Amino acid sequence: MKKKFLSLMLVAVVAIGLTACGGSGDSDTKEATTQESAKIEKSIDAVAEELGLTGGSDTLYEMIGATAGKEYNDGTVELYQFDADSSEYKDIVDGNGVITAAAYKDGIVLVFSGDADNKIIEAFNGLEFK
Fold first, then answer.
1. Rounded CA gap, 91 and 111, in Å?
2. Is 77 helix (H, G, I), strand (E, B) or coil?
3. What distance in Å separates the CA atoms of residue 88 and residue 79, rounded to the nearest whole number?
4. Which of 14, 18, 68, 96 sits most deeply, having the most CB atoms within 10 A of its CB?
């Protein structure tokens, strides 16, 4: 009787051990694939599409030292692309630029002409570029 009980306990311990270790490799692979597919091209058009912004008319981005710039959602949201090493971009990051950024990342700057939309800012901050 003791041998049967000991055998059942051993089987249970092995089964629990295998169950705990079994699926970890698959979830790591799925997570890496999800993160990889979430990366987008580093351009204002790709950012606008990812954020669900509509419209997209050019601005006078050259006047502020940007390499590209468009306004979306009837002019309430603006996106600018800068050379990340430029003095204009560094001034914006430091809060001393000609525009006030609601958010910025890797040379892309998000600006609101009115009240900032926290959902858009949160989504922007979560973007990953290729």
1. 15
2. strand
3. 15
4. 68
Distance CA 117, CA 30 (A): 31
Average pLDDT, the chain: 83
Element (H, E) at 28: helix 24-37
Which residue type occupies 98? V
Which among 45, 66, 65, 43 is positioned nearest to 56, based on CA atoms?
45
Rounded to two decimals, what is the model's pTM? 0.71
Q: Are 106 and 125 in contact (CB under 8 A)?
A: no
Q: How confident is the model at residue 34 (pLDDT cuts 50, 70, 90)?
A: very low
Nearest C-alpha neighbor of 109 from the set 58, 63, 67, 60 = 67
Q: What is the distance between the alpha carbons of residues 74 and 24, in angstroms, rounded to a whole number? A: 47
Domain ranges of the chain: 2-37, 40-129
Give the DSSP letter of residue 73.
Answer: T
pLDDT at 35: 45
Higher pLDDT among residues 121 and 31, named by residue? 121
